[in-house]
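INFO  loader      accepted 1 record
INFO  loader      residues=1128
INFO  predictor   begin
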Amino acid sequence: MVRLLTDPAVLQKRTDEALAADPQRLEGVARPLPITVLMNLRTYVWNALQSNQQGKSISAINKRFMTSFGVDGKPCQGLLEFLGFTFKDNVWEPPRPNPWGAIPYQDPQRIFLDDVFHELSALISQRPLVEKKGNQDEYTLHPARDDLLFAVDSFDYIKAPRREFFQMAPAPYYEDLGVVEDMLSSDIVEAFTRQISVDRERAPRYLKCLKEIGILRGGEDSEAISRAVEAAYTDTNLYTEADVTEAYKYFGLTHDDPRLTEDSIIGKFYAYLSSTTTTQETETRQQLWRIGDSRKSERIKSAAEDRVATPQQAQVFLGVSDETADDFVMTMFTTKVNDNPSCRDVARRAVELIAESRNSEVLKHFVKTGEMTAGEMDVADAYLLLQVPDRTADDGAIIAAYTICVDDAPAQAEKYTRALGVIASERNSPLLSSMVPGSVGKSDRDLSKWPVGLQNIGNTCYLNSLLQFYFSIKPYRNMVLDFENFKMGLDDEACQKKQVGSRKVSKKEVERSQKFLRELGVLFSDMISSPNSFVTPGQELARLTLISPSNEAAIRRRSTISAGQFGGLGEINGMPVLGPLGPPHIVTENEIQGPVPAQEPARAEPEKAKRSSDEDSEATLVSDGAKNEAPPAQSDDKENEPPDTVMVDAPNSESESKPEKSPDAQTLAGPVGPSDEPPPVPPRPAPQVDPHRQLIEEVEIGAQQDVTEVINNVLFQSQCAIRPIQIASDGEQVDQVKDLFYGQAISYILSDKGKRSKEEWWCDIKIDVATGPRDIYTAIDGAFDIQKVNVEDSVAEQYATISKLPPILQIQVQRVQFDAVKKRSFKSTHHLDLKETIYLDRYMDTRKPEILDRRKQCWEWKDKLKKLESRRAELLRQTETDGLDTAALLNSAKDILNDLNGMKDSPETAQDAIDVDPQLIPELDRLAQGAQDELRNLEQEIDNTQTMISGQFVDYKNLRYRLYAVFVHHGSVEFGHYYIYIFDFERNVWRKYNDTYVTEVRDLDEIFKSQDRHNPPTPYFLVYVNDQIKDRLVSPVTRQIVETVPESAPEPVAGDATAMEGVIPSNKAGEADVDMHPPAYDEVYTENGASGEGVNSEMTEKKNLVLAEHGKATPWTQNGADKSGVNW
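INFO  predictor   done
INFO  writer      dumping tokens
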């Protein structure tokens, strides 16, 4: 009955009926709120209790009565009669209790009405504040709720500040979570977490409650709860009952079909899977997993997870039975892999289990060699194994297929190599033969003038791209090769002062980083002197490159804890099966966005003291960095973060690592009864660790890191390993790596309180192509253009400028996006139009009015362009799936009406004809023509606006940067292949570095043009270099071939440290090579010699520049040019 009085939909329906029944009389009468209906009914009940009011009848056509209770009160007749009201002669007579009753009431009818009165008062008091405004309640109640809460020690809890805006829950969402309506959202989330931890079976219900509460609360509370819901979906695989229903619908099934069996569901899954794309497979498996989990079916879940652990599961996976012949099992394996190449490892494990259960030599031979019968692999099998359907494919396509196969299944690398060798022999291809390990056949190129390739060592193909890139950076390569003259001293005093990325660096990190640079130096030496067409990076170098110092400690700690336990997804041929990374964190609109260039790492907090239990010890390896207060403009991307924990030096004595007891604890020691603390954990035998296997496992885990995270790790370790050139005022180390790769940006925030600015370091500019194709300027603009941000509960404007440009400009293309609807990551493949030359004058910090005016004008044009494109999208109906724009839709409607009109002319259809308003067809034609004209005008205006934007800074061409390297990924968000293009300025040629395969790019369209095909290769990291000094920055070909490689590398020549080529030396000047003529890389200033626009930001003093070739200080002039004539 309460719903009859308070449900907004029910109230609206009966009010509409009343307005329709007597529109003139009720004209202008407002629709009653739930609180109004409750107060009206309470008034009627109160009047019935008062002896002087008992005779008042209620007219059924009373305006207030009709709008509250409907026409004649019939929609609420049952409730009114239950309360004692009676309907007669178009009036409602109230109940008439004994008029002489005194308080406390003894008359049953008076007691009943009094109870109803107070219950209505309680309901009124619970209505939201927005309803209570304008409806003052003259009755004051003294509910016992507060006394009850106080009695159970629940009265004084922190309440949600926005509680008066929360909508009332139509179902017991709060009750199911064990909370009340005015609790903080964080407490609601905490209650949800505790509920699912102790009652996992009802997790779908709890998740639904949490989602609904977020919707009811709205605002910032909704955002906080939505993040918790998203985490529940992605981190703990939770789902709601509605999600299970949708999962059944996904496969064309119904959840309540009693005929469904495990076999029919799994069969439907495999049938559906065979027709889906690779990108859809993750969602398909997730839907099946939800069905299996809801049915408590391990068999369905194992099929969803590709989990094959028993012969029975293997048979289900391959779709065979005990009676299936061995040759057909192999055929099913081949079909399975061809349909879904990503399941190759699981399919192989399935055949292996069936072979063991049958003791089948044929299947065992097939598992071991990939051959259906003993003997050599033939050419057809080789092409089939590498999944090359076209035997006329060129060598490059075959190498790409081979590389992808090895990346996907490193354990099968030997078999794939055999297949490649068979194809190479059949084709008589020197290029393919050179790809086969152990083959040192002569290349058809002059290797003294050609870069070497790098052998893929297993699922680390982007590592090879990184190593090729860093090798080609001339100053960096020289520093690595001459590392002993740049290395950081390991004395305690120097290490204590070491600060990189705004945080202290421990001695252990320095030692590890120096080991990394020495390993890198060995590889660089091989790349210079090897007589072969490729060399192989060491596993130790791969580990040190891919895994940061902090992640290394965490990985080894976890491997120690989990030794002897079930290892995740298991292993195949001794290689661990690893899963992909989860989706990235989604930045909400309320988070303040800083300049998209990646920020310098924030200072990490020291580790907490370690405790005795495994769980607590594990926790000490996790960074407390999340608790740090990040600067408002810091980017939320992980790629440029430093190691998330600090590697600390070991204590000198055992006593240092033991927590000391407090005096109070010592006083309380003694026979005071049983202790509440658990007994100490007995010592356990240390697990036996195979160092070689651990190395391989760490490399495999490191390969899952984001490539830009690895780039950051390389730069961080390089800085840790070398001594500083100088120490900045804030204690930060200034060194050659920082001078080469790091720039500075100023973020400005304009609000009612004035202008604020903050200057920060960055090593790359982050851009995206999430919403569609764009050119490189438009993409970079997105990192610096003005935008609306929320600052201190108010809307402000923010933009960024560059105050210092690095000589080597790195640009990260953020391809991985997160679909909040489907709850999964996806890769954006929109085209990015690259330019070989870009000019960065437009982004520099300046105080010149003409540039500032152009910048503001450009922002206005872009705002206009956004509105024009939005209107165009509306006319094109881009969100609809019927493929019709507005004009076509109107013309289609016009054609249908013409057809209906024409039915009158045919005797067969005349009786079914429909009368059509004669004015409607010409009106539709007019509207369609108007839509076409508006769309045509919009297209023209969009083109004009885009032309004005692109030409706004066309005459500013002082800061010229040339495209040097393009990192490319080919595949999906879960897997794929990486390679890199690098430009040789000396020989004016682009080369493609595809692991061991280095070729000249004949057709530049493969780099610069949009490829009209599904899931094309896409750039994800770009490198531009300063055109004025490019010849001293990069040198991709450096070869001094030594036919007989010595057993050990020569010791470096002792002596004073020399500077990296073109970089300020840390101590002496004048000891660089005689052919070095670069300006210093430590500063690139704006045209007035300082970063402007900020208060008191103008720099009046001159900066001194040390030139390596002259050995003397050369001052900067105010126009930004040094005395050598180099204008920056």
